[in-house]
Amino acid sequence: MKPKIGLITTMSPDSTWPDSVVSKVQEDHEKARTALEKLGFDVVIADTDISRTKEDMREHGGILRSASVEVLVLYVGTWTYSNMAVHLAERVNVPVLVWTDSGAGNLGIVGGAIARGALDEVGHTVALVHGDFNDASTLEKIRIWCTGAAGAMRLRGTTLGVGGSR
After folding, report:
1. Which residue among 41, 108, 136, 156 has its CA within the 20 to 30 Å range from the CA of 164?
2. What is the pLDDT of residues 15-62, one digit of tens each?
3. Global pTM?
4. Calpha distance 150→71 (Å, rounded)
5. Contacts of 34 (CB under 8 A, 6+ apart)
6. For helices 82-92 and 54-66, angle between their N-to-C axes, nearest 10 degrees
7. Are 29 and 56 in contact (CB under 8 A)?
8. How many CA atoms lie within 13 A of 75 on its CB side?
9. Segment (H or E) for 127
10. Cα(147)–Cα(4) distance, rounded to whole angstroms?
């Protein structure tokens, strides 16, 4: 069975972003999805749009939870608010990989870092990966972490019984 990965792309809900930035983040959502699928994951998206508000996070997180995803990849395209990531993670309740692109013109590392920090602060299992959609090293980090986290999720609620003596 392929690991089941939920993907949500986010940026802040501010209405002051130029359309070009919003369009770039929307394009990056598809690039992230394609990259995850090429890694062999079963990728579930809640919506083709960017999740930008608390209401989006609540709705989209509920969709991913209902789909029984094992890991959440939160792609941060640019600045975002840390409370949005926490709200989403608490809704989905699976390990979270925060991913930002390192390509030219991308500003996601700041938003990604605050999202990762907030998730860590409230006790979620979280990792941050900063790298390009086509970078083999970045994709390998994502593959390893998501595969391991999905494996750990599959063990939740299981019991190991060992019989016998010493």
Report:
1. 156
2. 899 999 999 999 999 999 999 999 999 999 988 889 999 999 999 999
3. 0.92
4. 6
5. 133
6. 20
7. no
8. 30
9. strand 126-130
10. 9
